[in-house]
Target: SprT family protein
Amino acid sequence: MKTSRLPIAIQQAVMRRLREKLAQANLKLGRNYPEPKLSYTQRGTSAGTAWLESYEIRLNPVLLLENSEAF
Model:
């Protein structure tokens, strides 16, 4: 199976957006949630999943490359 390599610019944009939205949520909810682990291991037809138990967000690298504006 071929693994898609994400350009660093896309990874940085995703992390920047995650931090923006996390700061927005913390401000609105009056909380201080830590930054979740972000991985690019999601496969199949799902763009991404959030795992509460491991405090992790998994994104699909293939769909991210094909639809970076939607992410």
About this structure: The chain has a mean pLDDT of 92.
